[in-house]
Design brief:
Elements lengths: L4 E7 L6 H9 L6 E7 L6 H9 L5 E6 L6 H11 L4 E4 L5 E2 L3 H11 L4 E10 L6 E3 L10 H6 L9 E4 H6 L12 H12 L3 E13 L4 H4 L2 H22 L3 H26 L2 H8 L2 H13 L6 H12 L1 H8 L2
Parallel strand pairs: 1-2, 1-4, 2-3, 6-9
Antiparallel strand pairs: 4-8, 5-9, 6-7, 6-8
Length: 324
């Protein structure tokens, strides 16, 4: 018997695209799949369309409906709590899966007795641009969480399959209320704690770019604030939990300064001069910013060096620049 794989799909007002998404799950060549759609209080026909499509499927399925809109992080968490599969993977309601997505990732994670396995993806554009394949590992080297994090090769959450026991053991959940950056936060925490990791270079996930996607239509400041929070939380988690000294140093000297700079920028964008000023008088903030200048130069990540220099030495000018 095959291992049960739970495919978790958060959905909010996705009536225009969820039919195609679910049909790509139903077309999988893997026999033992559980489909979990979490309808995050949609105001359109998302739930109705999901029910119509899934009623034609032989796979185990269910639709869970939130009473109020709680965001994508909460929807994914609801799916995790409901999942019965030995393995879990995530899909967005406006994307597509190649027919061997589940079977290939399941084979990888079982073959290597891994906690995580991942694949490449295809960027697909609805405006006529040519598709683009993205692979997160180049060459033939052993994959580890340390190498992926330090090399900037972190795969998206929806390109991965996870052992459910691994997620439960480390209490890996999405940060509720975070609407941007929540996926990379989850993956980086998972990579930090994973034992064995495997991958296939096949591009099995199709990420569909369209005008209505959240990253295009969302409020700019709200999304920026969510990203900043995700980076800070990730840095704190890696610094405290990673068994790798290199990853802990990366968290302290790369991620923490990046998050601190973003928080200064955010207060300027919001016009919060008093908060911005109080942050300048916080010695911990200043020490974190100084780390960026100790690591970067004008020839190595000049944009980071420039922002850190301005905050430390020309904070009023930086505030004015960013508040426009």
């Amino acid at each position: 018997m095959n291992d049960l794989v739970s495919v978790i799909i958060p959905a909010f007002n996705a009536s225009a695209r969820i039919k195609s998404a679910l049909e790509s799950v139903i077309a999988q060549d893997y026999a033992d799949i559980e489909i979990i759609v979490v309808d995050d209080a949609s105001s359109d026909d998302t739930g109705k369309i999901a029910h119509e499509v899934l009623s034609r499927s032989s796979f185990t399925h269910r639709i869970i409906t939130h009473d109020s809109n709680r965001g994508v992080s909460a929807a994914r968490n609801t799916g995790i709590e409901s999942a019965q599969g030995e393995y879990i993977c995530f899909m967005d309601a406006d994307d597509l899966l190649r027919e061997n997505f589940v079977s290939s990732l399941h084979a990888e994670i079982v073959k290597g007795e891994c906690d995580i396995a991942f694949c490449g993806l295809t960027d697909s554009f609805t405006d006529g641009k040519p598709n683009k394949d993205i692979r997160y590992v180049r060459g033939n080297w052993n994959v580890s969480g340390e190498k992926l994090i330090l090399g900037g090769n972190v795969p998206p959450v929806y390109c991965c399959i996870y052992r459910r026991e691994f997620i439960a053991r480390h209490n890996l959940m999405f940060h509720e209320g975070c609407i941007s950056g929540e996926d990379i936060e989850f993956v980086m925490k998972a990579l930090c704690m994973a034992g064995k990791i495997s991958y296939t270079p096949e591009c099995l996930y199709v990420y569909v770019h369209h005008s209505g996607m959240g990253s295009v239509s969302g409020n700019r400041i709200t999304r920026y604030a969510s990203n900043a929070g995700a980076i800070v939380r990730t840095a704190e988690y890696l610094a405290e939990n990673s068994p790798s000294e290199n990853v802990r140093r990366f968290a302290q000297y790369v991620l923490m300064p990046r998050g601190a700079i973003m928080n200064f920028t955010l207060q300027a964008m919001k016009g919060e001069r008093e908060i911005y000023s109080s942050m300048l008088h916080d010695g911990n903030n200043i020490e974190i910013i100084r780390r960026a200048m100790s690591l970067y130069t004008l020839t190595k990540k000049p944009e980071v060096f420039f922002k850190a220099f301005m905050i430390l030495h020309m904070p009023r000018i930086y505030y004015t620049m960013r508040s426009k």
